[in-house]
Amino acid sequence: MSRKVFITGTGIITSIGKNTNEHLDALLHKRSGIGKLELFPTIHSETIPVGEIKLTDEELCSIAGVQPNSGFTRTALIAIIACREALASANIENIKEARTGLISSTTVGGMREFENILTDLTDLSKDGNFRNYAHVTDAGEHTERVADLFGFKDYVSTTSTACSSASNAIILGAELIKHGILDRVVCGGSDVLSKFTLNGFNSLMILDKRTMHPFDAQRGGVNLGEGAAFVVLESEEMIAKYNKKPLVELTGYSNSNDAFHQTASSPDGDGALLSMSRAIAMAGVEPKAVDYINCHGTGTENNDLSEALAIQKLFQEHVPYFSSTKPYTGHTLAAAGSVEAVFSILSIQNNVLFPNLNFENQMPEISISPLKELMQNVEVKHVLSNSFGFGGSNTSLLFSKV
Amino acid sequence: MENTTTFYVQGLGNISPQKTFDNNEFLNEISEYNDNVLPCVLPEFKNYIHPVALRRMSRLLRIGLSAAKICAQDAQLDMPDAIITASGYGAIGDTSNFLWEILNNGEKQLTPTFFMQSTYNTISGAIAMNMKCNNYNTTYAHRGFSFENALQDALMQLTDTPSKRILLGAFDETNKEQHAIKQFDGLHKRKNINNLTLFQSDGLGTIEGEGAAFFTLGTEKTPNAYAKLLGVKTIYRPEDAGELQSQIHTLLTENNLDANAIDVVINGAGGDTQLDAMSNIALNNLFDGKQFLAFKHLCGDYCTAASFGMWLGCKILQHQAIPEITKVNQAAPLSSIKNVLILNHFWGKRYSLILLQQA
After folding, report:
1. Structural domain count of chain A
2. Three-class SS of residue A71?
């Protein structure tokens, strides 16, 4: 059984690009995807900026290679696009040549389509193409669309732990490999903008009407984004058998819970501290070995303070560089863990640290501040990636140079 | 996966359309329904949840949290080492409430609580808060595999750390919009039947159910351990009954058993003869003459209904008795019940196996 788990491929689509290379380019050139919401009607389009993928559903169908209006939700379409890139990037042509799993995640699945047709769907006298989207509200639907298109069969699963979902998908994937149940597994998540999530976060009054300012004293909340990202996890045996060169090793991971509030983080960051310290301990390294933290950093009053306090407490005089990359993409909810896993991998591969855009004002409660400028030509060996969510969910992943 | 560790079901908490919340009873009274939607028989929530907290909670949250508390009490579990939940549709009630508000109020004057309680992990988070548990906490939401994925996760954790005790549960609630959609597609019956006649009806579609079933899992044979959990397997889109039979054979072999060793077969048939066909063929081929049981006439069908099947298996092994209401056939009486196999399917595409043994 494999003791180690390697990452051999990545695939990603968000408001800043349709593949991994476009993301690296946008990250290096500080190109944010936050802007005006254009692709679906809502009363908030003029007032609430978002990270929107500027491709219509028809265009996404064309890129994904499926027929329009045939039941593929936007969530499924971007998942297909990201999954195809991840498989190609890992040089996987024949899914059936090894035991291969797919673990995706989402918060609202096909809600974007469902919210438009709910009234018609419940009218038993109405029929039409919209019925192709009858069963899209559950989280597992998009996963099966991806599975069926590419032929995943050995293990199909979906996690949904709000904004930490994709990170928990990656943890399950790693465990299935370590226990010898799978040889390789594609893990990640997909979420698109919808009236449901936009209005949900707006009702909680945590959406910034400007571009978001994580870890800033003047921060005013989060910008929502949309995206899908997958990473390919493979066992040691697969790496040896196919003579593969892994991108990074997944050396640590941990999941803990705040047990504090349904939607808010505990103010002292206890849950975050636990998940970060356990992930680092699993890798068998000292906290000071961590070169960079890709933070959850949602720009909300509550998250950023609690996350920063946890970082201070854990790393003390050795606080590594840290930033939130959400000002680039917006918060892609369930997908955030895998989107930021891809960024963490890019950081290690390219010896580069991505800045925390829009940071200006030091938070008075803490003595640390995020990375303001891009750093290149730095040796990046260990990157910690945090994803926290509603329900008190805290998940940390540690990626390491091979 | 070859198991060298032994896993025990150390506690149960089941709220379902039958009166199952009292662990001292075992299907003593049977509830009948006549409109194809089976709601839970509810316990007194304030026995498990503080009245102040209770007021803000949705119906599903009350049901889920109460089932979890019943289970933890049953197993004398104060601090789980992991909380793992599973749900096909999650908090569909609050999701619907919030969605209708958006549609009816033009995105204005919305109730944040509906949104806050709409995530799939609402209940796992609420259990953690209630038990002040900072440990591992996750939620699987993959249709008819949700519960089985959760079991798989738990078994891996217990293999790595046998000292752990895990609180694991599945829940789904009835929803009138989803029921209507499924009636249109023929997945649910349009013509009303009595739930107990599910398997004698016209054979098209199933009936809608709900429930929350929790299990405490550990590696120690506690005094009131119900059963050993030998293994779990998911089978996605099997081609034919042969593939199901081969997967059953693999699971049995991994546990040094053969088809003959199985005393009771619990079939998660939903009453739709077409969708049930593959399971029925596989089971009849392998287990001819064995005692067959069914349960979806009692709880209805839903994504995580296999959890009701597992509860049934655990109770049968504990009581060493089979409720007549669950029997599909009258096999030769058993002197003892040692091995129970559950085969569930969801919409004929997602199949799962759960293998239980007398504790």
Report:
1. 2
2. coil
Beta partners for residue A155, in sequence order: A101
Confidence of residue A285 (pLDDT cuts 50, 70, 90): very high
**Cα(B220)–Cα(B164) distance, integer angstroms:** 10
- C-alpha to C-alpha distance for B36 and B296, rounded to whole angstroms: 12
A264-273, B237-246, B247-256: lowest mean pLDDT where? Answer: A264-273
Query: Domains in chain B, ordered, with CATH?
Result: 8-218 (3.40.47.10), 227-358 (3.40.47.10)
Q: Which residue has the tokens 């013509």?
A: B191
Q: Which of B88, B132, B157 sits opposite A138 (nearest CB)?
A: B88
Q: Give percent of chain A above pLDDT 90.
A: 93
Q: Side-chain half-sphere of B130: how many Cα atoms within 13 Å?
A: 28
Q: Please state, as a whole number, how many other Cβ atoms lie within 10 Å of the Cβ of residue B79.
A: 12
CA separation for the pair A338, A9 (Å, rounded): 12
Q: Quick one: A337 and A373 in the same domain?
A: yes
pLDDT tens per residue, range A114-128? 999 998 988 889 999
pLDDT score of B2 more than 80: no
Range of the domain at A327: 252-400
pLDDT at B1: 47
The residue from A221, A241, A261 where one domain ends is A241
Domain identity same for A54 and A134: yes
The reply to whether A237 and A309 lie within a common domain is: no
Q: Which residues between 75 and 104 in chain B have a beta carbon less than 8 angstroms from any beta carbon of chain A?
A: 83, 88-90, 92, 95, 98-100, 102-103
What pLDDT is stored for residue B122 in this prediction? 96
Partners of A141 on chain B (C-beta within 8 Å) are 143
Q: Crossing angle, helix A111-121 and helix B92-104, to 10 degrees? A: 80
Comparing A25-29, A266-270, A287-291, B156-160, the range with the smallest average pLDDT is A266-270
DSSP per-residue codes, B246-307: HHHHHHHHHTT--GGG--EEEEE--S-HHHHHHHHHHHHHHSTTSEEEE-HHHH-B-TTTHH
How far apart are alpha carbons A101 and A178 in whole angstroms? Answer: 13
Task: From A246, A254, A194, A245, select the one nearest A224 (Cα to Cα).
Answer: A194
- Asked if B83 lies within 8 A of A257 by C-beta distance, the reply is yes
Q: How many CB atoms lie within 10 A of CB A317?
A: 6
Determine contact: B199 vs chain A, CB below 8 A: no
Q: CB–CB of A110/A137 below 8 Å?
A: yes
Residue B63 is encoded by which pair of tokens? 């049901």
- B247 vs A: CB within 8 A: no
Q: Could you give the 3-state DSSP secondary structure of residue A185?
A: strand
Q: Is A30 helix (H, G, I), strand (E, B) or coil?
A: coil
Distance, CA of A137 to CA of B344 (rounded, Å): 22
CATH number of the domain bearing residue A358: 3.40.47.10
Would the pLDDT of A373 be above 70?
yes
Residue-wise pLDDT tens digits, B166-205: 999 999 999 999 999 999 999 999 999 999 999 998 889 9
pLDDT band at A2 (very low <50, low <70, confident <90, very high): low
Nearest CB to B122: which of A137, A176, A391?
Answer: A391
